[in-house]
Amino acid sequence: MTFPYHTFTIVNSVRGNYPVATVIDPPINEEQAAIQEAEKNDHPEAIYIADLMPGPRIANEALGSFMIDWGNLETALHALFKLLLGVDEPRSRAVLHGRSGRALRDLILNLAKVTLDAEAQSALLALTDRFDRINSKRNTIVHGIWTVEIVLYGKSGRVIGQASIIRQLEPVSDTEFDALHNPKNQALRAKHLYTIKRIHAVMRDARALTADVQKFTVALGAL
């Protein structure tokens, strides 16, 4: 298969006395792919990156599903904003046009100061705090690039390769970029790297918050 992602990174986690692994870069076209396939018997110990790579479907499905969940969350916040502003749908859309993320959150909180009592404001602030946490993760997921991280490790006298699809937002600093693919730098990796599993976790958080915002809006409308 040819390489469907922007980049890949090799993390060498081999410990102990193991032979040096020959890592074969992924082919850039079908001709190279055919040559690699024909040469595999001559290099039985080599690690072919192309063979480790998962297909792009799982990555595309995760990103697409996340965008749907994010859209549903913003729709729920739009409904809350409309209720707080006390206008019809066209006027609400006109005010919100081009505003999302933190700008949307700030509008809602400002309206709450002049429309809600202290108890309701406190409940709303808890919801918007959750929104802030999801929004910061959303920025990495949406604006990052797909990359494949390949970890080399030793097992039964051989060097084995294992690949993971990761959504990566590259840091500006060269020092941070070099440190990003050291498994020991967990805090930095958590900020800039999202596996498919982590993306699904953010999706669950977004769905739960959407439901809670909808409940809050319904409760306000019944007062």
List the helices and strands and how they pair.
Blueprint: E1 7-12, E2 23-24, H1 30-39, E3 47-48, H2 49-52, H3 57-85, H4 89-96, H5 101-115, H6 118-143, E4 145-155, E5 158-168, H7 174-180, H8 186-192, E6 193-195, H9 196-221
Parallel strand pairs: 1-4, 2-3
Antiparallel strand pairs: 4-5, 5-6
Helix pairs in contact: 3-4, 3-5, 3-9, 5-6, 6-9
Could you characterize the architecture of this molecule?
Helix 3 crosses helix 4, helix 3 packs parallel to helix 5 and helix 6 runs antiparallel to helix 9. By secondary structure, the protein is of the alpha/beta class. The N and C termini lie far apart (60 Å). The chain is built from nine helices and six strands. It has one domain.
Number of strands: 6
Number of domains: 1
List the helices and strands in order.
EEHEHHHHHEEHHEH
Helix content: 55-70%
Q: Can you list the strand order of the major beta sheet?
A: 1-4-5-6
Q: Point out poorly predicted stretches.
A: none
How many helical elements?
9
Offer a quick outline of the entry:
It contains 9 helices and 6 strands.
Keywords:
223 residues; 9 helices; alpha/beta; 16% strand
